[in-house]
Amino acid sequence: MMKIIQWTFVFYFLLQSCVVIENDHDYSSINNTKINDNYTILISNEFDDNTISWMFGSFEEWRLKTSFNYTVKIVDKNMVFDYNNINNDMYNTIFIELELMEHIMKDGNYHLVNGFCERNKRKNNSSIKINKSGDVWLPMNVFQSTLMHELGHAFGIDHTDHIPSKSVLKSTAQFYGRTMHVECLDAKLYCELWGCVNSCKLEQLP
Predict the structure, then answer these.
(1) What is the pLDDT of residues 131-167, one digit of tens each?
(2) Strand partners, 171
(3) Model pTM?
(4) What value, to the nearest 5°, has the Cα angle with vertex 136 and ends 135 and 141?
(5) DSSP β-ladder status, 16-23 and 38-44
(6) Listed residue (153, 181, 150, 178) closest to 166, CA to CA
(7) d(CA 125, CA 39)
(8) Closest listed residue to residue 143, CA positions, set 199, 188, 96, 186
(9) pLDDT, tens digit, for every residue of 89-107?
């Protein structure tokens, strides 16, 4: 039985993939001095307390390795968060919610989409959707890794497939060098964008 559980977890993780959309329209009226990495994170109340505690594990991995700072608010699951609305007063906000997602075809294979991020970089607002099929939740490790990955996109970091170093920002879980934690490369890319300092030593993959 233990072996079956272990292989089920491996299969689940290997199928993990990500979709990210970034809105780059010219919003010249936006005051970019309001953009910073002190985020307000809105969490839909459709997540249970246990899963929200998993989220804090993902938040803390980023916070401890970068200048990322955050406050959390639990909001009604029916809240409509228009991350792309240039007329609201919301900046530096990340909304996390559940959504049923389908498989996508990539590199000739079907991948289960565990996470999805849409970002308006002009206001630094993002919407992160985590997959949930019926009553089936992602295992804790996969959930946390998925959220770390999508947070990276919310911060403005692209997929790191082209860089031969460990990273939680590889496009799929089976990509060589993909890990389940925020790595040195991820922290350095964050700091390049947000002006922090990270002195970790970047290791090249063999």
Answers:
(1) 876 555 678 888 999 999 999 999 999 999 999 999 9
(2) none
(3) 0.83
(4) 140
(5) unpaired
(6) 178
(7) 9
(8) 96
(9) 889 999 999 887 765 555 5
Q: How far is CA 61 from CA 8, 56, 90, 141, 149, in A?
A: 26, 9, 25, 13, 11
Q: Which residues contact 31 (CB under 8 A, 6 or more apart)?
A: none
Alpha-carbon gap, residue 69 to 153, rounded angstroms: 16
pLDDT confidence of residue 132: 76
Q: Pick from 162, 156, 164: which is nearest to 184 by CA?
A: 164
CA nearest to 126, candidates 89, 85, 158, 83: 83
HSE-up of residue 19 (Cα within 13 Å, Cβ side): 16
Helix axes 49-65, 184-194, angle to 10 degrees: 70
Could you tell me the two tokens for 98? 């559940």
Mean pLDDT of the chain: 81
C-alpha triplet 92, 98, 101: angle, nearest 5°: 115
* pLDDT at residue number 15: 42
Residue 159 · residue 126 · CB < 8 Å: no
Sign of CA dihedral 79, 84, 89, 94: positive
* Residue 98 phi, psi (nearest 5): -95, 150
